[in-house]
Amino acid sequence: MTTQTENATDSTTSSFSTLIAIFSEPSKAFDAVARSSMLLLPLLSIIGCSVFLIVWYYQSVDMAWLQDKLTVAMTDPAAREAAKGFMKRSTMMSISAVSILVVVPLMFSVSALYYVIIAKIKKLEFGFGKWFAFVAWASVPTLLSLPLGAMQILLANHGQLEPGQLNPVSLNSLVLHIGTGLRWASLADSISLITVWTVVLSVIGFQQWSKSSRAASIVIVLIPYVVIYGIWAVISLMSKAA
Fold it and tell me: What pTM, to 2 d.p., does this model score?
């Protein structure tokens, strides 16, 4: 019994040490993940922090103001009012929270599958579970969204804060300032300094695990981003201008 308790304690300590190392010594962190996935800490932390932030946001936002913002691109008054009727606080909060619970593991799974395919090509021994952990640990900078978002909520004027403004280090917040509901807004909101940090960690980790060159690792890591954002940009380009 004592041995089991000590093992659990060591595992917890190792997980938190890796969490610290992913920010300060990423190479050391990925070495640890290669030995032991320690998946639950990054996965549950990312989901938990994201859900907490979005629930807090919808509890504090001025819903009437937000409804006007989200329907600004609608030209049909009847459609606009119908949309506002659907956008109740509880509905928006529930949909957003459930989406996080589903989308985060799904996106991690798709990314892990991509790396599995690459690993097969390069004859690497890591399987799906290990790559899933790799993606989760590389995404740990996402946790910074909680303090950044909390700061935005606390500083908001009378709860008037657009969803995209929860991330003050996004391309939209820093440079473009496109309003919620307008074309290109969601794409600009999704690209941020946190995204860049995740890419950098992924490159470091992949290079370490695969023994590939830095250039090859950058290309391999960037391919999914280029494809996803490229398709997203084409869709935005083809959509009706607001």
Answer: 0.89
